[in-house]
Amino acid sequence: MRHAWIALFICVGISLAGDFFCQSQRSNTNASELISKAAARVALPDNVGTWVLVKADQFDEKVVRVLQCKAHENKQYRDRQTGELIWVSLIAGPSGPLLAHRAEVCYGSMNFQIINEPQPIAIRGAGDQADTFVQLSVQAQNVTADASRIYYSWKPATGRWQAPSNPRLALGGNPMLYKLQVVGPAPDEEAARKSAPDACQRFLAALLPELESALEIQ
Hints:
Blueprint: H1 3-10, H2 19-23, H3 28-39, E1 47-48, E2 51-57, H4 61-67, E3 71-79, E4 85-93, H5 95-100, H6 103-108, E5 112-124, E6 131-140, E7 147-155, H7 167-171, E8 177-185, H8 189-194, H9 199-214
């Protein structure tokens, strides 16, 4: 699961041209203030429901530089009940780079095959108030052929987690964004048939209430 953040390193040269659109819409002063406030709020708890912290890791310096993330946490958790392992990344930074680097682009540029098209999934709530994440699955093109399920979403200084069909248009005007990405095992065939929540969904359902007030900037 270390590829949860290595994918970011591989794709740092992709989609940078799209940053200009987002950068041109925000005030540098407001962005600096918001990003500083957000950076102080970026923290993932050691225990989340049935999940316990296994280890914490840091992004490569090049990833930090290209994403311009002023604060990030990257942690691995294990479910005490099932033994499943997931990687979770929480980032705060300017909207342009965080919107440009999406998992389907990053993993697609590596030795991974996208095995289902990205689609929005409501993790919590309903309708316009739902916390929505992009969901996709990838499979490693090697001898292990491990399949992973990925969820990611963005959040402005206030409000819900969002996964719009056109992220730059919908969110590019925000001077600052949080980004949350979770990578875990893809569900097996039986679980898929039952439409049971996968490991990442269960983790997010437990994590989002804890982050709700912690990340808000009024």
